[in-house]
Amino acid sequence: MRRLSHSLAVLWVVATLTFVLMRVTPGGPFDREQRLPPQVLANIAAKYHLDEPLISQYLRYMTGLIQGDLGPSYKYLDRTVRDIIISTLPVSALLGILALAFAVIVSFPAGLLAAYYHNSWTDRWCLFLATLGISLPNFILGGLLIWIFSLQLGWFQAGRWGTLSSIVLPTITLGSSAAAYLTYLLRSTLIDTLGADFIRTARAKGLKEIVVIFKHAMRNSISPLLTVLGPLLAALVTGSFVVEYVFAIPGMGRFFITAVTDRDYPMIMGVTLVYSTLLVSANLIVDLLYSVIDPRVKRH
Amino acid sequence: MRTPYLPYRATTLALCLFLALLSCAPSSEQAQEKVFRVNLGTEPPSLDWSLATDQVSFNVIVNLMVGLTEFDRNLRPAPMVAKSWEIHDNGRKIIFQLRDDVLWSDGKSVRAQDFEYSWKRLLNPSTASEYAYILYDILNAEPYNQGKITDSDLVGVRALDDWTLEVRLKHTAPYFLAITTFEVTYPQRRDIVEKNGTRWTDPSIIVTNGPFLLESWSHEDEIRLKANPGFFLGKPAIDRIEMVIVNENTTALAMYEQGQLDFIDNRSIPIFEKHRLIRQPGFRIVPQLRGYYYGFVTDRKPFDDVRVRKAFAMAIDRRIFPKILHGGEQPINSWIPPGMIGHNPEIGLPFNPSEARRLLTEAGYPNGKGFPEITLGYNTDETHKMVAEAIQSMWKQNLDVLVRLDNQEWKVYLNKLNNDPPHLFRLGWGADYPDPDNFMKLFTSTSGNNNTRWKNERYDELVERAARELDEQERVRLYNEAQRILCETDLPIISLFVTAETTVLNPRFTGLEFNSMARLMLRQVRLTEPTGANPS
Amino acid sequence: MKIEKRPRGLWRELRQNRAALWSLGFILILGLSSSLAPLVSPYGAGGLDEAHILENPSLDHWMGTDGLGRDLFTRVLYGARVSLAVGIGTTLLALVIGTIVGLISGYARPLLDNLLMRIVDIFYGLPDLLVFILLSLILGRNIVGLLISLGLVTWVRFARLIRGEVLQAKEFVYVEGARAVGASHPRILLRHILPNIMGPIIVTLTFMIPAIILAESTLSFIGLGINDPYSNWGTSWGTLAQDGWRAMRTYPHVIFFPGLAIFLTILSFNFLGNSLRDILDPKGNLR
């Protein structure tokens, strides 16, 4: 339970920090296209409570947060931040999940082969490809994929979201660095495991190789991987905005970018909070899972 | 390559192929409904036509609504909701007779009171419309909008009865009929607007009278319109319009070429692709009545000094623009674009870098030394970026002055111009109605769209007189003098070029009237007949 | 007991790894040629040339020209300055802050340690790029502001790492010995502990730089990167990539070369980091 309170504390600090950052930077809800008469300006200030002292604004915001109210959007004057997030978060989440699935599907065999044929050509090639995967920035990979598969070959759709053909390229783009990372991880964990005594015992017992690998080695290597999957998913969801931008996907990340250029502060705050919550909860869940799966781990 | 890899690679490949095959399956939209898809490019800031000021918003509004008149092929106002009109009192009074069969989408009739309400709302100071000044020719409109009088009954627009609208002008205005084609003069429903406040343009609330209805608005994603069966000229040939919002023009172009869009214009065509598209069927370049200029904020250093302004203007070689923009842009030194009366290519300051340097030295900055830090602002767009970078380079090369570039998204940019403008800003101006008055009035001291803070009484006076002048030759003479002030002596702006719109229309469709006023009017769009030639 | 690797031994080991050698070579050449850019390329950094717009690579223009007629090779070369400066500068800044905090935290009493670690935890809970964007709104988008914003976001990695290492190093015999002799704490920290934990620090450093370069080019690509035309440094590769992206279909060279530059640079640092890690930290205590 200390973990939980600790996480909540982190979130609270995040909220406060973002609030402060928001108030420090210039711009506000008066930002409309017209030059407004002073009376109207005063009315707007009163409406958004911007004429109150900072402390009461802060308290007002915090109480609103607890109730799930993230404030009105400064750009879309008739929508709240919550509305926008509710409609866009699922898109980013789906993209993240698909990317993670792709990463797992690709990294499993790759990491396995690399570890099994440790120090051979296969291993070196896998490592090489993995390094490539990590070194290639999202937008370049995305651009490359679009150029080859969408523009030149016309196989896949490159833009928007909704049809089966439109999800392939973004998934690959977002998932490839995660795939590379997982490959590394799986490989090193498996190398360690495969060298352990109990594996040697299993082999000595005459068990078939396949059984040795999957039943014994893999199962023991899973836990470090699982602990990583949670935060990785969170990282994918929160890091998807470049991919969303490049592929014109209406996800939360892309809204975040527009919110920054538009100085839509409540929106920026709302998205930051949601992302933080995702990260913190992912870590929390992983910690809890870890202590459940592996009772040897003591909580310090 | 060794084998252990192969099975996995094969499966991944097979998976990809499978997905690719799925994507080739015909989409359900090709079934019975006739759908037309375009790209708006950016999210319209507002669909309230008393508040809208930009082309994106108007492109949507023009399909939702009709007004008193509409442009015909020759860009002259033709009857729409107004079936006829009479001009009295030497042009100072116009009586419009309205049709009685135009309906709002909720079944009520469009009446003269709806026009009166809308125009007064436009002029109401608390609406804070930027386009209020477009109706200043109306009696008492200006004082009402400035807050000098508060009784809206004194304003010279009045519904005599349900089908008769009387407009009294403060002076003769030969172009006033053209103004009635402009979207901000469309009628509005008082009951709907007053009851719902800022939400009245919500798809579930809004009430319109035009060829299409607002079906849904998914922000930053798509606006959907559907055909209005109750439209008084008959239901449009297209059942549904999908207006997507895709910021990235590379993506939009790819979408068109994959068949997901049916029409693209400048907003959806990257500059560097224009060359290639010339060979496409359905390609057309439509010259626009649209100028592109850089404005100075003239009440701040260093641009409060006219010599500095002139120096900057003369350091630009405009011939470069069509070369880097590839879109048929036409360099211009004066302001009124070709195609309008009053256009005069002789007016304006030529490219003269040595004279520019001399002026800058005379103003106190020899060889650019001591020149303060200045910022050039523009709204985020690849065209503006290229123009800005090119000009930045020219100013560095010819004047030895380094200018900082700063860009924001359109809405933020507009707000910045009003509240905290940079020293120089980029803007365009598309004709709201094809009369030079529209272009020249922009820079009068009372114009809400004049961001230069420049005032010149003589200029105001000339524009005013030309607006009332019925003799065309005299008008041209007055506009010449006014343009000389604008582009030669005072120079609050640098006029750069006249834009053209590159368009590609899927040959499956015909009837898209993309005119030089850059309005995307979709009422006449229909599927091309499969046999024979089509009148385009 | 940990064995210190003498510099001479390090170089010898490194030399045996070809990928690392090539990477090191690439980085050095890049750094050198970009700092000396005015000497390397006859074209200026900004000049536009209307006669040579969007040309494909040729003998005159090794990487072709962009939409304003500017030589792409020159732009990429100047862009290297920005990327390398930001990458290395930010990493160093993060290193300094992180080292200070890590050293103190690992060495000091549990109370101070806990406090500092709570702060570190909070930073870890923040989504990196988002916080960076917020910071850049305040600090401005010139190079210095960017360095600080990025540095503030990434220092925590060093802090955690160093703290862990210090905790381990504290137990070594020579530390006790030093304390017995009466050495002061700072002296112990700097003279004894720090040199012995250099290995993991160097490895992390080498991996951090490409991560920063990646972040900076990504941000520039979406338009939230450096915006400071007063600096004559150059244009970020990410911005070049954005310019090129629009021309991708018909003139792919405009995005290809900046993209390649980013890719190769990041790759080089990663390869180098891999090799360094194999040498300095074979047990895989990191990552």
Secondary-structure blueprint of this entry?
The complex is a heterotrimer of chains A (300), B (536) and C (287).
Chain A: H1 2-24, H2 38-47, H3 54-66, H4 81-116, H5 121-135, H6 138-152, H7 164-194, H8 197-204, H9 209-238, H10 241-247, H11 252-262, H12 265-293
Chain B: H1 5-24, E1 35-39, H2 55-64, E2 69-71, E3 77-79, E4 82-88, E5 93-98, H3 112-123, H4 141-146, E6 157-161, E7 164-168, H5 176-179, H6 190-196, E8 212-218, E9 222-227, E10 240-244, H7 249-257, E11 263-264, H8 274-277, E12 283-296, H9 306-314, H10 320-325, E13 330-331, H11 353-362, E14 374-379, H12 382-399, E15 403-408, H13 410-419, E16 424-430, H14 436-441, H15 457-468, H16 472-489, E17 493-505, E18 509-510, E19 513-514, E20 520-521, E21 526-527
Parallel strand pairs in B: 1-10, 14-15, 14-16
Antiparallel strand pairs in B: 2-3, 4-5, 5-7, 6-7, 8-9, 9-10, 11-17, 12-16, 12-17, 13-17, 18-21, 19-20
Helix pairs in contact in B: 9-11, 15-16
Chain C: H1 7-16, H2 18-35, H3 37-40, H4 72-107, H5 110-125, H6 128-139, H7 143-169, H8 173-181, H9 185-196, H10 198-221, H11 237-246, H12 253-280
Helix pairs in contact in C: 2-4, 2-12, 4-5, 4-7, 4-10, 4-12, 5-7, 6-7, 7-10, 8-9, 10-11, 10-12, 11-12
Tell me what you see in this structure.
The complex is a heterotrimer of chains A (300), B (536) and C (287). With 300 residues, chain A is mainly α. With 536 residues, chain B is α+β, with helices and mostly antiparallel strands. In chain B, helix 9 packs antiparallel against helix 11 and helix 15 packs antiparallel against helix 16. In chain B, the strands form six sheets. In chain B, strands 11, 12, 13, 14, 15, 16 and 17 form a seven-stranded mixed sheet that branches. The longest helix of chain B has 20 residues. Chain B is globular, with a radius of gyration of 25 Å. The longest helix of chain C has 36 residues. Chain C has one domain: MetI-like fold.
